[in-house]
Amino acid sequence: MDFQSGKPEPLEIENKNDGTASSISESHKEGTVIGDLFTGNGDFSDQSQDVNIEAAKEEYEELKKELSRISRLSSVPASKLEEGVANENEFNLSEFLHDMSRNSREAGHELKHLGVIWKNLTVEGLSADAHIIPTVVSGILKNVQFWKYFNFGAKKSTKVILKDLSGFCKDGEMLLILGRPGAGCTTLLKMIANIRGSYTGVDGTLSYGGIDHNTFGKRYGGQTCYNSEEDQHYPTLTLKQTLQFALRTKTPGTRLPHETKNDFIDKIIYMLGNMLGLTKQMQTMVGNAFVRGLSGGERKRLSIAEQMTTQSTINCWDCSTRGLDAASALDFIRSLRIMTDVFHKTTVATLYQASNNIYNLFDKVILLDEGHCLYFGPVGKAKSYFEDLGFYCPPRKSTPDFLTGLCNPLEREIKPGFENSVPLYASDFDVRYRESSIYKDMMNELKEYEEMIMSKKPSEKFKKAMDEEHQKHAPNSAPFTASFYQQVKALTIRQYHLLIKDRQALLSRYGTILIQALIMASCFYNIPLDGTGAFSRNGAIFFAVLFNAFISQSELVRFLMGRPILEKHKQYALYRPSAFYVAQVVMDIPYAIVQVLLFEICSYFMMGLNLTAGRFFSFFLVLFFINMTMNGFFRFFGAITSSFFFATQISGVLLIATITYCGYVIPYRSMHPWLSWIYWISPISYGYKTLLINEVKGQHYSCEGYGNAIPYGPGYDNWDYKVCTMTGGRPGEDFVLGENYLNDALSYTPEHQWAPDFVAVLGFFILFTVLTAMAMEYGGISKVGSLTKLYLPGKAPKTRTQEEEDERRRRQADITDTMETVSTGTTFSWQHVNYTVPIKGGELQLLNDISGIVKPGHLTALMGSSGAGKTTLLDVLARRKTLGKVEGRLYLNNEALINDFERITGYCEQMDIHQPAITVREAMRFSANLRQPAEVPEKEKNEYVDQIIQLLEMDDIGDAQIGDVDSGFGISVEERKRLTIGMELVGKPKLLFLDEPTSGLDAQSSFNIIRFIRKLADAGWPVLCTIHQPSAILFDHFDHLLLLVRGGRTAYYGEIGEDARTMIDYFERNGGPVCSPAANPAEYILEVVGAGTAGKVKQNWADIWEHSPEAKRLETELEELHQSADQSPTRLALTYATPFKTQFYWVHKRMALSYWRSPDYNIGRFMTIMFTSLITGFTYWKMSFTVSELQNRLFALFASFIMSNILIILAQPRFMTERLYFRRDYASRYYGWVPFAFSVLLVEIPYILFLAAFFMFGFYWTAGLTNTSEAVGYFYLMLIVFVFWSVSLGFVIAALAENPTMAAVINPLVLSMLILFAGMMQPEKAMPRFWSSWLYWINPFHYYIEGLSVNELENIKVECIDSDLVKFSPPPGMTCGNYTANYFSYGAPGYIANPDAMQPEMCGYCAYSSGKEFYSTNFGWDEHNKWRNLGVVAAFFVFNMICFCALVFLTRKGRR
């Protein structure tokens, strides 16, 4: 809405040249409670066609009072009003908006309005046959044919979505787009909203008040807003925070005199809250499928409010009333009407299931089918135009349903005598329309409008208004209202709320760091200042860097979470994506400071690092920037790819490379020249170097004590004839200077500590920040919202001829007519049901004493306003709730509920959660085979599935992959809804619960579904179904009603009666307004009990119900049932319909398919592992048998640890998504938790064998490891067992964590503990006794690395080269051999290379003579344990499996 400006004119009624009354007069004649009569809406007759202007004026005045529930009291400030101080009945929207409009005009603000014109618009998109479901094989082929990525030789077939459309929508007008799903409505809406990315070709012109679409997109992007069907919001923000954020970025630069930004924001929030009935929910969390928050309808209204904050000129609403009840939907469209009139907006909407009330609020309507325009013209003339063509509109059918039904041969009715002359196909309709007088009138009007644009140039005024709207310092050339600084500020506030709200993530993040720091410090407790201590010091500092890098990896998950919301805001032009990133970095700073300080305070002193203030703070500073740099490093990959797997793989591979080449694992001088350049571009190497210099510079390392000097022991006391073993020792000195050690051992120059080393870390931080911000700013948005269907090879639907299409529809009608009846009728009753949930500081009661009963053949509607507790009641009745306390008596067929209740009832939930990898038919067969009794043959079950598929009109998508709406591949939202219903029906349940089966469907699909449910009821099935916006025709199908009001109380339960009289009489008798015969009874009752955004109501209907005779009768009936009910039934009840074997077969089959059809996951894992193995192999290329290479052999084996880290991280999201589907299936008792847990583990086996083999091929021989058949075989066996163990550990962590963020925090903790106590970085003898006594022995890494090391080194003879030798001079007159004889007799390792040398020649001492000596001296390992170790690692794998199964069992039910 244009909140600053507007036109003064009061809403006069004028006769437009098209002969209908003005929009507002005609629009508000219906559905209004005037005095005490509920007037009709023209649903039943045509009396609304001849308009009485005077009556309309009076009615409009009435309406203004009714709609306008407030007069804006200037005395009450907005903030007070928000607190609910103002009386709710005083808000008058029309006056409020006129007030704003007048004020802004007086302040001299320009108006901002533009119409939109499209001429000869033709749009093409990709067609179905171009796409086949990808599998691992097709994925490999695709990667091999790399040239196709650059569009060489790739042909894609396209289809025309819109065919040569011309039309317009002026400012101040509302245009309704009608059509069945697939007719092209959304495409036309997206064209008007200037969203073209997902289409292959767009021809024709589109202009916005004379501005072409390119210029408009670049400079005024946020002025055409598109509101999609899906609600994308941050679940942990409150409703008010969500709106405040949007308003902060859209506060205009020029406001009213003396109006601050905050006043402006409060004023708008106050208005939106009242207009959309969200005042009471302001402090409620938004929530989503997994976080408790607003109800579905309230979330929809929030989406609407959020779009309204953008103040855009042209608004496109795509099915925005989906999920709202009839009263709220009408209120919303009325608000749009008033807004359009006052501010001269241009409003375009597509609606499914619009009532006449809603329809009459629009000015023009465009009817599409198969991309053809069947009608474009005034709303009032559409019905008569088609009736003149020869079509018949039944009396109770609303006009929009009549119009959309014209495209369906089964639904349309032709008047007698017109059978041969009416158009039958979309193209015929198009031709007839172009010949009509209405078409000529519209084209003339279009011409006049174009001339008006040429002469008056509204675009000039629009540009001026836009320039005024920009804040100070915001460039006028960009579409953003706020300056970059203001955007960052608003985003930082939002980021703060997001992080502070996520307590679980905060606690786990800091808890992990605390535990990790303490454990690490205790492992390296009080490192001694001598030679052996130097190695441990390196390890400790390397580990500090490593852990801070790993913890940043969890940023990737969080960063990708908010992606869809960012895309939506980008389209609204709320902020630059780069500002979003800068705000994240700003919010990182305090969190990173706390994180690094916590880590350092816990570990620095315990490890006995250099205790001077300067060194302490230098350590802090460097670690802080390493952390910030690594955050940027991971997010950069999140910004350039949108897929989590892809980002994890790329960043994981590069992390391995940078860690391998940081200078700890392999010193710089040992690096091979072909890869040593990585050392110079690795941020970790500079950070490690800076920290090490900071620690070691200026320290003196003592050489006293065993193992620190050569030779050592009794008789070797003269330092002239012995030397330190630590590199950097000088002969004759009994200590090593830190600087010498750095120079000699690591080739580090201490003077480089701050420049260039620290500066390089700083530089990397800035580089990644800039790169990520740019990637987000200029990264293309992928296909927005266009869903591409993927089919099994050869199963894509062929285009049918019209005759074949008619035949298909006839077959479908036959199936519906021949439904079998159910012999066993089921009665389900519930009495005094209460449901409370724990909240902060007490309990909240969501359901309050609800009773009712459904009998065989009953179709009961469950209605009420959004937020009254309809879904909650269904959840409670279907036994799906796991949180809170449920009280009440539930009986099925006169018995208390037992363990087979969930299996024999079908529950279609609002959220359509399906396994995306399989096809529609596979999904339904899965359900049928697991839920129908085991004795029914599979063939019969499959035939039944095919019947249901035909019945739900899903033949075309039977072999299409279900896919995922967010990924852009899969079936549409509306097809998912039908699949949800189909999944329950194929199980032949005895009792059916449906939660809003028609929301988001068009009138025809809804009609088919409700008619079908009615057939089920007639066949003896009892059905309880919530429904939001039933038209009179749909409502007619129901025979009983349970009506809830806010607070979860009953307002009515009982029969609806013929023509709804029973129900209406009840309300009229108890003081409700009289319902006119023409009104839609469903809208009447919702209006009476105060649904809708206003929620104004004269009396308390819940109290009236409690004391009514109807309630007493129900109570008596239920009490009788209770007395006669069997409280502990003894009949045989199966929890699952099929035995374990069948369950396991189907579950494993589905999971194997899901893996096979995930080439991204499997090929990605393969690439990552191949890369790791090759980079490791070439880093340690063909190692020799010198002392320094012994250490390298160990580190080469250590690289397989990092591979396990990647497998763990990649396995988790995979399991978490599978668990979502499992929980849904388990709640309906498709199968137990055991088949699921087994399948998850077993499906990985073939892939793991393959991955382990390829890792070995890439690494083993390139690194030159021991090439004997026993050593190679052992290596492969150990690797397989280890990889199994890694993946199962990933699953255990995932089963423990509820969400990916949580898992991303646990991962580094577990992994770093495993690496620390494996006995490699800190040998067992150097560990504190506490750890070495138990943790070392229960660490699978210890057994793994010991097994591989002894396998590798047991037969190696060491050959020292000159640089390996430690040199010292023998005393005069002694040979080196004589001098060291005693030393070797004490059991020292190694040998003297030149035993016969004498002074002045130096003795050369080689530290080890064999590999065996090396590992037994340093690590205390033994080759006899080799096969034992393999067994132990295998036992750990089995242990993981047991833990995993136990966790699956414990977390089998989601929290709801």
Any overview of this molecule?
The chain is elongated and about 130 Å long. The relative contact order is 0.08. It starts with 22 loop residues before the first helix and ends in a 6-residue tail after the last helix. The strands form ten sheets. The protein has a six-stranded mixed sheet with strand order 8-9-10-5-11-12, with helices on both faces. Strands 24-27-28-21-29-30 form a six-stranded mixed sheet, sandwiched between helices. A four-stranded antiparallel sheet has the order 4-3-6-7, with helices on both faces. The protein has 52 helices and 34 strands. The longest helix is centred in the C-terminal third of the chain and has 41 residues, at 1187-1227. Helix 8 runs antiparallel to helix 18, helix 19 packs parallel to helix 47 (1300-1316) and helix 46 packs parallel to helix 52 (1426-1450). The model is unreliable at 4-35, 40-53 and 62-88 (pLDDT under 50). With 1456 residues, the protein is α/β, with parallel strands linked by helices.
